[in-house]
Amino acid sequence: MSNARWRDAMHAWLQALRPAPMRVDAGERLRVVAGAIAGLLATALLTELLSRHAPGVPWLIAPLGASAVLVFGVPASPLAQPWAVVMGNTASALVGIACAHLFGGVPELAAAIAVGGAIGLMFLLRCLHPPGGAAALLMVLSGVQDWRFALDPVLLNSALMVLTGMAYNGVTGRRYPHPQVTLSTPTRPSTPAAAGAGGTAFQGSDLDAVLARYNQVLDVPRDDLQAIVDEAALLAARRRMTTLRCGDVMSLDVKTVAWGTPLQEAWSLLREHHIKALPVVDRARRVVGIVTLADFMRSAPLDLHEDWASRLRRLIRPTPTTHSDKPEVVGQIMSRQVRVASADRPLAELVPMFADTGHHHIPIVGDEARLVGILTQSDLVAALARMDRL
């Protein structure tokens, strides 16, 4: 390995040792500190009040300090849930006491088997709790052989810590216990906002499949993990929306008419191409108006006692004489107030226009305000669907 590659490898290894930044504010840090103090103080006082200890027997176990970090610092963690705290510490203490009985003459072996056995039992009972390993080790190192020690103080300490955590976390706005969603629980799709209009970015079952392949203990509850991924997907969608331009998604094949186009010809274009609007352009392809299905409906004579189809036929039928008492060409019924957008305008800026103002089609103009395309609601939905698949 060359010196440069060796330095790069060493630098990467050293970078891996750097602690991650703590992404919590001062208020949350103070909440955790105060919770740990309150939890341990309440547990100590209540244990001393409720238990009957022989002289020299401790009434508060050291691993409880680590449990406090989890219960108050990461109350959503699967490792900090009540079952994990109480059963993890208690079962591990039983394993440690058993090892003290069986291998007490070889403390090194007893310590190793106690911690390994405790981890295996916690996996089996679904109560993995890191301080449980410390509880098992404590039993061996202290030479504890009284089985009652697993109940008092270990079980009692753990239960009181959990009850204090429930009260404190609830008062300070943290869910505890935090429901842990399992693979058997019906899953929900990711949020529509994060996924876009064309479908969901992923289903809950996809997340479950990835977690199954991950095959490692994850210190984040599944529902929080999906919420984090959803929020990240939403931010990514918003970022992509800011980079996407109208010219990237507009329809290029625009059917247009002129001011003097006969109504019958314009209506035929709408019907033939299954569209709802026709930009009206001058000879330089500048937009001077737009004619829509609504314009035709509005211009049909409502005072005649005929069905709408008959009134429409009368409207679009050319008048054979030189004078007419009804509109004959597009310019007479078109809407002159037209919202247009430039091809390089961010697509995100037009979303409110479609959503809030009732627009269904917006002509897109390029250099010298000449028509280059049209953006419809269908184009917008299709663009969001394509973004969803990126």
What's the short story on this structure?
This protein has 16 helices and 5 strands. The chain is mostly helical and 390 residues long. The chain folds into 3 domains: 26-171, no CATH class; 192-239, no CATH class; 248-388, CBS-domain, CATH 3.10.580.10.
Write up what this structure looks like.
It is a single chain. The chain has 390 residues and is mainly alpha-helical. It has 3 domains: 26-171, no CATH class; 192-239, no CATH class; 248-388, CBS-domain, CATH 3.10.580.10. The protein contains 16 helices and 5 strands. The strands form 2 sheets. Strands 3-4-5 form a 3-stranded mixed beta sheet. A two-stranded antiparallel ribbon has the order 1-2. A hairpin with a 5-residue loop joins strand 4 (361-365) and strand 5. Helix 4 (82-103) packs antiparallel against helix 5, helix 4 (82-103) packs parallel to helix 6 (130-142) and helix 5 (107-125) packs antiparallel against helix 6. The two termini are 38 Å apart. The model is unreliable at 183-200 (pLDDT under 50).
* Overall 3D form: elongated
Q: Which bin fits the share of residues in helices?
A: 40-55%
Average residue pLDDT:
84
List unreliable stretches of 5+ residues.
183-200
Strand content: 5-15%
Tally of helical segments = 16
Radius of gyration, rounded?
A: 36 Å
- Largest sheet strand order: 3-4-5
